[in-house]
Design goal:
The complex is a heterodimer.
Chain A lengths: L3 E2 L4 E5 L4 E3 L2 E2 L6 E8 L6 E7 L7 E2 L2 E6 L4 E6 L8 E9 L8 E2 L3 E6 L1
Parallel strand pairs in A: 2-12
Antiparallel strand pairs in A: 1-4, 3-9, 5-6, 5-10, 7-8, 8-9, 10-11, 10-12
Chain B lengths: L4 E3 L2 E4 L5 E6 L6 E7 L6 E7 L2 E4 L8 E4 L6 E5 L8 E8 L9 E2 L3 E5 L1
Parallel strand pairs in B: 2-11
Antiparallel strand pairs in B: 1-3, 3-8, 4-5, 4-9, 5-6, 7-8, 9-10, 9-11
Classes of the chains: A mainly beta, B mainly beta.
């Protein structure tokens, strides 16, 4: 079974509008972390935002926020006021702390295209 | 400060050859990870180092793949008898430690093409 599911292979958004990228996860480990990375065409993975499983509040970092719904096992990324430079692949990832050594498990990604 | 660097950025080799890919982590980071990213996929874990030792190599696909980190800093991923299926982008990441809050910072990757 897939541990990280990103159901949107591609998304379009108009510049200056908000967009939500979906991510659901599957784990039986009570202690885990959720991460979002951006990968532009240059290939480098850029860290955006982190949410811990015990965090009470949703994480925010500038224009990025994470809509964390623990009971639904979802960790959607919200990008507000989209910019042309936001066009990239976006990956959701999870780190389980129970029995692993901390490696990240990635989804297949969502390609976001921002239209002018 | 300097981020994670990887060399070479591109490597083209012939089937059956041996290749080495290098990763230079962020200074002071004790944890180092190697991932492989095939076209259209997310990165897949290969191996993790804590200090000099390989703490988890469960992601290495077979015994043709090996990695070292002799002094706890630079790491080298070694692939013997390369096959066309090894073609991918190999990503290295480092983090201060391996706790739940430690973010992994990635290098630009090495694109390996096996002809």
């Amino acid at each position: 079974a897939q541990k990280i599911t990103q159901t949107q292979p591609g998304m379009f958004v108009q510049e200056k509008e908000a967009v939500t990228l979906d991510c659901t996860y599957d784990t039986s480990d009570p202690s885990y972390g959720l991460f979002w990375y951006k990968q532009p065409s240059s290939g480098e993975m850029i860290f955006l935002i982190y949410q811990g499983s015990y965090d009470q509040q949703n994480a925010t970092e500038g224009r990025y926020s994470l809509n964390f719904q623990k009971a639904r096992k979802s960790a959607n990324l919200v990008i507000s006021a989209s910019q042309l430079g936001d066009s990239a692949m976006y990956f959701c990832a999870m780190r389980e702390l129970g029995g692993s050594q901390g490696n990240l498990i990635f989804g297949k990604g969502t390609k976001l295209s921002v239209k002018p | 400060g300097a981020g994670v660097s990887q060399t070479p950025s591109n490597k083209v080799t012939e089937k059956g050859k041996y290749v080495e890919l290098r990763c230079d982590p962020i200074s002071g980071h004790t944890a180092l990870y190697w991932y492989r990213q095939s076209l259209g996929q997310g990165p897949e874990f290969l191996i993790y180092f804590q200090g000099t030792g390989a703490a988890d190599d469960s992601g290495l696909p077979n015994d043709r793949f090996f990695a070292v980190r002799p002094e706890g800093s630079v790491s080298t991923l070694k692939i013997q008898r390369t096959e066309r299926g090894d073609s991918a982008v190999y990503l290295c990441a480092s983090s201060p430690g391996a706790s739940s809050t430690d973010t992994q910072y990635f290098g630009p990757g090495t694109r390996l093409t096996v002809l």
